[in-house]
Amino acid sequence: MNRKQMFKLNLTSTCDAYWAIYSIAIIGKTGSACVQRGDKLTTDANTIRGMSCTIMSINKWHPEKLEKLEKQHKTAKETK
């Protein structure tokens, strides 16, 4: 696997991964090194409160495509 690939995790539950400061941990339900649907995600911001999120889906993340769409949207707005 290419180390530069990025993935977007869709999470459910009460944790807020955006508040992670130092660490994010994934607790696998199978003990495998691969992350999969149903695994738990916790951050240093949530461990004190005992909260975690459940991974609902894993999708490839393409930031370059997002930038292209944003540029197209901005251009379309400017031409109106």
Summarize this structure briefly.
This protein is an alpha+beta fold. The chain contains one helix and four strands.
Notes on the structure:
This protein has 80 residues and is an alpha+beta fold. It has one domain (6-78). The chain is built from one helix and four strands. Strands 1-4-3-2 form a four-stranded antiparallel beta sheet, with no helix packed on it. The longest helix is centred in the last third of the chain and has 16 residues, at 63-78. It starts with 5 loop residues before the first strand and ends with a helix.
Which class of secondary structure composition applies to the elements? Answer: alpha+beta
Query: How far apart are the termini?
Result: 44 Å
Reported for the largest beta sheet, the result is: 4 strands, antiparallel
Considering DSSP H and I runs of 4 or more, what fraction of the residues is helical?
A: 10-25%
Count of helical segments? 1
Mean pLDDT: 80
The fraction of residues assigned to DSSP E strands is: 25-35%
Please tag this protein with its features.
80 residues, alpha+beta, four-stranded antiparallel β-sheet, 1 helix, 31% strand
Describe the protein's topology.
Layout: E1 6-13, E2 24-27, E3 40-43, E4 53-61, H1 63-78
Antiparallel strand pairs: 1-4, 2-3, 3-4
